[in-house]
Design a protein that fits this description.
alpha+beta, Immunoglobulin-like, binds copper (II) ion
Amino acid sequence: MKNHRLPQVNSLAHVQEHSVQLNRKVVYLFLSLFFLTLLISSLPAQASPANKNTEQSQANRIIVEGEYIRESPPGAYATAAFMTLHNTSNQDIYLVGAKTNLAKIVEIHAHRFENGMMKMFQVPEIKIPAKGSIALQPGGYHIMLIEPSATINQVKTVSLDLIFKDHSTQLLSLPVKKRNMKLREPPY
Ligand SMILES: [Cu+2]
C-alpha cells in the first residue's frame, strides 16, 4: 500500500513544482512587459523640454518682467497670463508654448480686428527680437489657459513653464491678480 501511494505523492509534488515554475515564467513575462511599457512610455518624457536646458539655452537669454495671471471669473472657460519678455541675446528668440498643471490646454494667443471687433486667435509662436522686448498684455499677445482649474482662484501663485523654440524652458511663478472691473480691460 505504502509503496503504491508514495509515487502518487511524488508525482503530485512534481506537478506543483512544475506549476510554480510556470507561474514564475508568467510573472517574469508580465514583469518584462510591464517594464517595457514603462520604458516606452518614458521615452517622450526623456525628450521633454524640461531636461534640455543648458548654458546656451534660449530660456536663459530671456528675462521675464511683470508676470501675472488673471483671476478666473466663476464658470469661465479660460483665463490668461501676461508678462514682458526681454531678449538679452543677439539672436531672435521664439516663445513656442507654455504649460501649467492648473489648465487643461495652454495656447499662445494674439488679437486682431475683425468686422469691427477685437478677436483673439492662436499663434504658433511669439518672436522676441534680438536685444528687444515684447509685451504680453490684455488686448494683445497673451498666454491662454483653457479650462483652468478652480484652484487658480485659491492659490497665491501659479507655476507656469515657458517653452522656447530650442525646447528650453523657464519656470515662472505667477501671482494671481484680481480682475479690476472698473478698468474695463479686455478680459484676455
Ligand atoms: Cu486668448
